[in-house]
Amino acid sequence: MPYCSRCGVEVDNDVEKCPLCSTPIQVLSPENLKTGKYPDKPAPHPAPPKRNKKEQRRMAAIIITFGLLIPASIAIAADVVINKHITWGTYTISTLIYIWVIILLPLLYYKTPVLTLMAYYLSTLLFLYSIEVFSGGEYWFRQLALPIITVTALLIALNFYIDNRSAIKGINIFAYAVFSVGLECVGIEMAVSLFLENTVRVWWSIMVLSATIPTGGLLLYLHHKTKKPLKTEKFFHI
């Protein structure tokens, strides 16, 4: 009996298309018509065309966008039904927009990390500022969030720059990250003390910095003294 070349299901002799997948049934060659035999194996079905990476990222962006629009619409509708106007829904919308930006930026602009970092910085500031506005304006954004986010962005940008400028990359990149953690803690404590006590004070962050400096220095020493660059995975047995 004839069969479908795509799914292999057997069909009647007078069937022209497969009832399951609508694939045209292959026609017998003149030799097979005389013997009444069909090929032993179905003819290979052509593989579907593959999407390139750009199309895949674009499709993923569309799926993510619609995936976030659904909870946003539900939140707004529920807020309006319960409170007769938009109240807590603004927090949900601003959070979903921020998540949308965070996910889509590296997906669409993966070749421009500098632009992505700047967009991360600005979108984070805008998100935190919107939270302050929606919560009634406590004025913590300018004195607390802005300096902390700025210090974090500068340290990340500095690490990216060092990573790109390093001829040999190994545990030295991890060492620079350790230094950045110590400096980040100092910046956080200074911003918090200025916000709460109206004065700049450092205490616990100095202890963190005093631990990160020798740790990072040891990693740099091991990196420059070894004949071959130590990879982070091998050094920490990951």
UniProtKB/TrEMBL annotation:
Membrane-spanning intervals of the chain: 60-82, 88-110, 117-134, 140-161, 173-196, 202-222
Statement: the UniProt record of this protein carries the keyword Transmembrane: yes
Domain of life of the native organism: Bacteria
Presence of keyword Transmembrane helix: yes
Pfam families in the cross-refs: DUF6320
Keywords on record: Membrane, Transmembrane, Transmembrane helix
Region (Disordered): 32-54
Protein's UniProt name: Putative RDD family membrane protein YckC
Organism: Spirochaeta isovalerica
